[in-house]
Amino acid sequence: MNTNQLVTTIEANWKKLAIFIALFTFLGLLLSLSINDSYKSTSVLLPSKNLVKESARTNNFIGSALGVTVGQSTLESETLKSSDFFRFLLSQGLDPTELFIEHKTYDQELVYSVDFINTGLVDEKKIKTDKFLVVAHNVYLGNLNITPFKNEDFVTISFSHSSPEIAYKWLNSSILELNRYLAQKTNLKASRSIEFLNQQLSSASSVEVRISLSDLLKQEIKKSMLSTNEEEFAYEFVQSPEVPSYVDFPNRILIIVLFFLISIFLSTIYLVFKTGNEEK
Fold first, then answer.
1. Burial of 48: CB neighbours in 10 Å, binned 0-12, 13-18, 19+
2. I want to staple 45 with a disulfide (CB 3.0 to 4.6 A). Which of 95, 102, 107, 235 is the partner?
3. What is the mean pLDDT of residues 194-214?
4. Section 263-274 average pLDDT
């Protein structure tokens, strides 16, 4: 096969090739239009300086909470992704049915009610609600993305949704409520420790023991005081969440161009085989 033969084959079949390329590219257009728009709200965070100092003494508490690398070790606990935090998030007024606006696949019988979240009743409705929350939590995790900066303390958290307003609301609420959630847990733990240490201090007779208990008591009181600042307890905003103004996915132009290039590639293969067969 030579170039002249290939050119001749193209000239003889250019109408068919043009129609194929146009139809295949149009198929890419239809595919891109069939995909729901997805908007991404993003925020950049910096762990609180005061808490980072405390976390050095308490097994990197912030890194554990956010699931990021602190002190070159990836910690397993990811509070932001936990089901306990998700329930806490819903108890603050967020409606999990918003997560399904773009899916429309969840069982309509799995009726959501915040009353069932806060009650210990075990009945049919409670079971259905638990099933719904499991599904809702999985959708929440699928839309949530946490990316630590390499060799940096900064963390990028984003949330995707077909509605830009809902993407912003869930991201902003997740960050604010995570601060509150961690602050409340730390305050509760510190309060219990303070109560225990006070009891031990009152009964201790050794001077060395009393000095050690006093030092521990000061640390717990400091933790309790830090936890009163719930808004920036875990981390500070470097870039606050915003309502996204452009579609993050899909990139329709990229899809159309990709289908166009694929159609040319397939056409080239067809011409090569066609020319080869004509030579035989």
1. buried
2. 235
3. 87
4. 83
| Cα angle for residues 60, 61, 67 (degrees, 5° grid) | 90
Is pLDDT of 58 > 50? Answer: no
What is the pLDDT averaged over residues 129-157? 83
Tell me the backbone φ, ψ of residue 269, rounded to 5 degrees. -60, -45
Question: DSSP for the chain?
Answer: --HHHHHHHHHHHHHHHHHHHHHHHHHHHHHHHHSPPBEEEEEEEEE-HHHHHHHTTTT-HHHHHHT-EETTEE-S--GGGSHHHHHHHHHTT--GGGGGTTT--S-TTS---HHHHS----SHHHHHHHHHHHHHHHHHHHHEEEEEPTTSS-EEEEEEESSHHHHHHHHHHHHHHHHHHHHHHHHHHHHHHHHHHHHHHHH---HHHHHHHHHHHHHHHHHHHHTT--TTSSEEEEE------S--B--HHHHHHHHHHHHHHHHHHHHHHHHHHHH-
Instruction: Give the residue-averaged pLDDT of 120-143.
Output: 72
Q: What pLDDT, on the 0 to 100 scale, is given for residue 135? A: 85
Per the CB < 8 A criterion, the answer to whether 21 and 267 are in contact is yes
Q: Is the Cα dihedral 229, 179, 237, 90 positive or negative?
A: negative
